[in-house]
Design goal:
4 helices, ACP-like_sf, Phosphopantetheine-binding protein, mainly alpha, single chain
């Protein structure tokens, strides 16, 4: 799971062009929106597309469930891991 969190941190930095950040600068438990990283809805769309491309996961735009997945890097990693697990 830690490797997946690292990959997601790198994906956040590359897909959102946050060159001034390093993966180590992102706390896996910190909120991604408002406080924490301070991402906005446009960032969420871009990150969602990047996650879909990289991991083949499907996210619905306005669901509460998607908002929970985007709560933190840790939540995103758990979502991706669950989505990739064989049914």
């Amino acid at each position: 799971m830690q490797r997946l969190e690292q990959e997601i941190k790198e994906l956040i930095i590359s897909s959102l062009s946050l060159e001034d950040l390093r993966p180590a600068d992102i706390d896996a438990q910190a909120p991604l929106f408002v406080e924490g990283l301070g991402l906005d809805s446009i960032d969420a769309l871009e990150l969602g597309l990047a996650l879909q491309k990289r991991y083949g996961v499907t996210l619905s735009a306005d669901s509460q469930e998607t908002r929970r997945h985007f709560a933190s890097v840790q939540a995103l990693a758990a979502f991706v891991a669950a989505a990739r697990a064989p049914a």
